[in-house]
Amino acid sequence: MAEDEAASGKKLISASDVVGHASRKDCWVVIHGKVYDVTKFLEDHPGGEDVLLHASASGDATEAFEDVGHSTSAISMMNNYLIGSIKDYVPPSASEATTVGGNDVPPNFRRMPQKKGPPAPNTFLDFLLPLFVLGLAFAAWYYLTFIAKA
Ligand code: HEM
């Protein structure tokens, strides 16, 4: 896919070239190996310009972008800002290395907190509480049926 974009006139950009484009006047973000110039979009971004600036400075905004769960219309908007693809892109999940391309690339220091993962396992209390209520109901029934009537 990255190759398709490259073939359709978008340039190949090395990871180190992305460094230095993380300001309000010049902001690039890397998402799934593609480079987007979002300078003109900063003010209009519904998520705010600060998140874009942070994502830009982090070197690779893929995880942050995915964590937000952008809508399909947001994803189709991205094409308006596409300027190229990262040369020899290594997805952040494919390598645990903190650098994206070379040693001159800043580490991906800002990762959104992971909201994913298995749901919390049932605790013992989850079983104990209904059992307790059942016991209480039984005790009340027993009292009313056998003891109170006597
Ligand atoms: C070219 C890149 C991007 C485009 C075109 C874009 C577009 C949008 C759009 C249209 C929305 C409104 C909600 C939706 O339709 O999903 C949105 C919300 C948001 N975006 Fe982005 N976005 C981009 C990159 C990023 C990045 C890199 C981050 C990094 C964290 C980010 C964080 C957010 C946040 C936090 C919201 C608010 C979500 C909410 O309030 O529910 N976006 N974005």
The strand line-up of the biggest sheet is 1-5-4-3-2
CATH names the topology of the largest domain as: Flavocytochrome B2, Chain A, domain 1
Termini separation:
83 Å
Q: So how many helices?
A: 6
Mind telling me which CATH architecture of the largest domain this is?
Roll
Compressed to H and E, one letter per element, the order equals: HEHEEEHHHEH
Main sheet overview: 5 strands, mixed
Number of strands: 5
CATH H-level superfamily title of the largest domain: Cytochrome b5-like heme/steroid binding domain
Total tally of structural domains: 2
Low-confidence stretches: 97-102
Which structural class matches the secondary elements? alpha+beta
Structure notes:
This protein has 2 domains: 2-86, Roll (Flavocytochrome B2, Chain A, domain 1), CATH 3.10.120; 118-150. It is 37% helix and 13% strand. The chain contains 6 helices and 5 strands. A 5-stranded mixed beta sheet has the order 1-5-4-3-2. It is rod-shaped and about 90 Å long. The model is unreliable at 97-102 (pLDDT under 50). Residues 29, 36, 38, 45-47, 51-52, 55, 61, 64-65, 68, 70-71, 73-74, 77-78, 81 line the site of protoporphyrin IX containing FE. Residues 29, 36, 38, 45-47, 51-52, 55, 61, 64-65, 68, 70-71, 73-74, 77-78, 81 line the site of protoporphyrin IX containing FE (HEM).
